[in-house]
Predict the 3D structure of the following.
Amino acid sequence: MNFSMIIILGVGHVFDIASQVRAIIEQEHPDAVCVELDPARYQALLNPGGRSNARFTYRLLASMQKRLAHQYGGEGGSEMLAATKAAQEIHAEVLLIDADANLLFRRLYSEMPMKEKLKLSMSAVASLFISRRRMEKELDQFQGNEDVYLAEMGEQFPTLKRVLLDERNELMAKRIDQAAAVYPNVLAVVGDGHVEGIIHLLDRDDIKVYRLRDIRGQPKASSARQLPSNAQARFHYEQTLQ
């Protein structure tokens, strides 16, 4: 009989929440910490400034996340590094559970129709100019209307949602479940946009959840709030949660 416990910690990659992530890991003291990284991205975080052969749109998204992170007083990916360092300090196993980002984007572009590619490229460029105020507004909207928000995201960018969200949810849920078969207590640090999908796929009763709004000290948004009115707004925010 499996007596393991799984803790899901939802984060946002542009927010200055490294200390909160570290505190939760120290408090929960898991046997293994799963992080939403692949080996190449992990090494890039450990050694910033190196050359990248990533696709243009991927580099644009990274630039957008880096700029927004600076607005919040942090560094993009700092919460993931904090998670790995905290895990190492409590002698927990660090498990990288995400798909290879470069391979993912190659497949995304090979499967994406031209119309969606053009829309994606325009949205990625526009992402460079999104403000902190706009981000906070979209965060509030996402928290109050998550299911509808993701559904509309899927209508605008169906291939993007399938490859970068749904299929990654399946992969990460599988790897979290595999970890839970080995380690008594597993904590997974993933983008907040993945949390509900992973919980649904795991289909377990022993899951404890921390959402981004919890660790940022924000109240849950009202479900009556209006969603962003265009695809670019949904695209901007979703990338910070993946």
Notes: The mean pLDDT is 79. Residues 5-240 form one domain.
